Amino acid sequence: MAYLDAGGRSRFRRTMADLAAERGCHWLSNEGLMVVVQADGSSVVPEMDDARLCGRFLLLQDGQPAAITGPHGQSLEWL
After folding, report:
1. Tens digit of pLDDT for each residue in 44-55?
2. With contact defined as beta carbons under 8 Å apart, do 63 and 15 qualify?
3. Looking at residue 78, what is its pLDDT?
4. Which helix (H) or strand (E) holds 77?
5. What does pTM read for this prediction?
6. What is the H or E stretch that residue 30 is in?
7. How far apart are alpha carbons 71 and 21 in whole angstroms?
8. Cα-flanking dihedrals φ and ψ of residue 21, to 5°?
9. Which residues contact 50 (CB under 8 A, 6 or more apart)?
10. 57 three-class SS
């Protein structure tokens, strides 16, 4: 997702939501703050304090925050 612009990330999220609804799959993502905060300043996880993610990643399950992680999985803090 970090390689996509805000529009591409939005399309990808819609695609994953459609797949989950149609096929019952789950989407796990581990993304940095630049992916969580959108181009318009909104956040896909508004309940998360941005300062808490500084230098770390957010693990999401189906778009919902599950843990804060190190960028390469070297740490894990369940929410």
Report:
1. 665 767 777 788
2. no
3. 92
4. strand 76-78
5. 0.72
6. strand 28-32
7. 29
8. -70, -40
9. 33, 36, 37, 43
10. strand
Q: At CA 76, angle to CA 23 and CA 71, rounded to 5?
A: 85
Instruction: Give the tokens for residue 22.
Output: 């149609």
| Residues in Cβ contact with 2 at an 8 Å cutoff, skipping those fewer than 6 apart | 31, 32, 34, 35
Instruction: Return the structure tokens found at 42.
Output: 């909104």
Burial class (CB in 10 A: 0-12, 13-18, 19+), 13: middle
Are 29 and 45 in contact by the 8 Å Cβ rule? The answer is: no
Residue with more model confidence, 77 or 64: 77
- d(CA 72, CA 9) in angstroms, rounded, equals 21
Structure tokens that stand for 35 in this block: 């992916």
